[in-house]
Amino acid sequence: MSTVPQQRLLRTEIPGPLSRELHARKAAAVSSGVGTTLPVYIERAGGGILVDVDGNQLIDFGSGIAVTSVGNAAPRVVEAVRAQVADFTHTCFMVTPYEEYLAVCEALNEVTPGDHEKRSALFNSGAEAVENAIKVARHATGRSAVVVFDHAYHGRTNLTMALTAKSMPYKHGFGPFAGDIYRVPMAYAYRWPTGADNCAEEAFATFVEQVHTQVGESHVAAVLVEPIQGEGGFIVPAPGFLRRVADWCREHGIVLIADEIQSGFCRTGDWFASEHEGIVPDLITTAKGIAGGLPLAAVTGRAELMDAVHGGGLGGTYGGNPVACAAALATIETMRADDLAGAAKRIESIMVPRLRQLAAKYDVIGDVRGRGAMIAVELVAGGGLKEPNAALAAALSAACHQEGLVTLTAGTYANVLRFLPPLVIGEDLLNEGLDIIEGVLGRLA
Ligand code: PLZ
Asked: Is residue 83 domain-shared with residue 214, that is, in the same domain?
């Protein structure tokens, strides 16, 4: 267990004086292009609590954007990192390799969906993993087109900006973007024009037609999809949609890439969100929850695809850094030993009924959705109108922050309040966080 007291405690206003001082230094030293959701400066964290420099203890419903699923400074991760950092910190796997990298790849090949022969490669960030998955798919198929979805988020590098849907803030003014990328509608049940019941079938028909007429199946290297869309607003594709897309990809020799960077590693109650839909992607990208907070990312997939690339075609100086690998091995061990997939399911079973009760009471909650510990509410104008209510999402999130609950927003229309607690959060803190949400809704809705 974490040594950080598992209690919310407000000693000052939020942010407090010491945080405000640091934030003034930020303005003078850090590019203003790098934003901050909540400018409390953190000193210590563990379990479900973040401790700031003013001594405030905040409940964490963000996990650093779905990263510290095993908890911050998780005991096994700390031990493993300490031991590794004392042994050696870097050699570059491409120069003189080490066993930790192999062990992470073996673990990834084991825990990802499908029992086919797999290979993995390690990188530093989610965006880099996505870029490499596209490289592999293009190289292996000899094709170049990539199909992506509305509301998709895949990163901030040049190729991944092109793959990402939303302009502001991710793409605005940063073009020109990489080419041969085609966007199709997502099966977004809540906003499907003819209703949720028709969504999977109609979205799939539109997908098939648009790819056929606008791209041509034989040009498509890959279809890239988040099994639950993250930054786009925790959009769960209508049941059956992903299955149809997966079957269609197989029929046309197209590589299906599941971007599980946010949804993976027990977050949704399974090792990977793909499993819930019964799909076996050809390639999977992972990052975030993989290493308990250390920077690590991976591409895992069919051996014949991953091995199609010429020797030396994939890599990078730091990819699979030994300290990050040690953290990943300890993270995976923790997820297994402590059944964190089960913990995610328990979090869902507490959060969703309470949020549905609130939705029944306040018509500004248009939708409650997500899976496991990846749960969100979509805020709308109310009175039966689905008009996105970004102002309310921002106000609710800010009010939660004032009360010592770290929440995040999301969504193409910025009207989604999302919850990503560490999977190790205690039930008391989880319920206290929900009490805060209930309270601020009562005041602001
Ligand atoms: N794919 C599905 O969620 C990262 C982005 C935060 P990196 N999401 C958080 C921000 O505003 O930059 C993400 C993701 C999915 C890819 C990525 C990119 O991962 O590690 O941030 O590069």
From this structure: yes
Residue 210 scores a pLDDT above 80: yes
Residues 276 and 270: their CA atoms lie apart, in Å, by 7
Tell me how far the alpha carbon of residue 409 lies from the centroid of ligand 1, in angstroms. Answer: 14
Look up the pTM and report it: 0.98
Between CA 411 and CA 40 the distance in angstroms is 23
- The verdict on residue 215 lying in a domain is yes
Residue 100 in contact with ligand 1 by CB distance below 6 A: no
Residues 382 and 419 in one domain: yes
Interval between CA 319 and ligand 1 midpoint (Å) = 17
Q: What is the pLDDT of residues 380-409, one digit of tens each?
A: 999 989 999 999 999 999 999 999 999 999
Do 108 and 174 sit in the same domain of this protein? yes
**164 C-alpha to ligand 1 centroid (Å):** 10
Residue 179's domain comprises 76-337
Residue among 255, 426, 226, 227 nearest 346 (CA):
426
Q: Are residues 240 and 109 in the same domain?
A: yes
Distance 272 CA to ligand 1 centre (A): 16
Judge if the beta carbon of residue 154 lies within 6 A of ligand 1: yes
Check pocket membership of 231 for ligand 1, CB cut-off 6 A: yes
The response to whether residue 153 sits with its C-beta less than 6 Å from ligand 1 reads yes
Q: Are residues 349 and 328 in the same domain?
A: no
Q: Looking at the 3D structure of the chain, how many domains does it have?
A: 2
Residue 299: HSE in the Cβ half-sphere, 13 Å Cα cutoff: 26
Do 63 and 159 fall into the same domain?
no
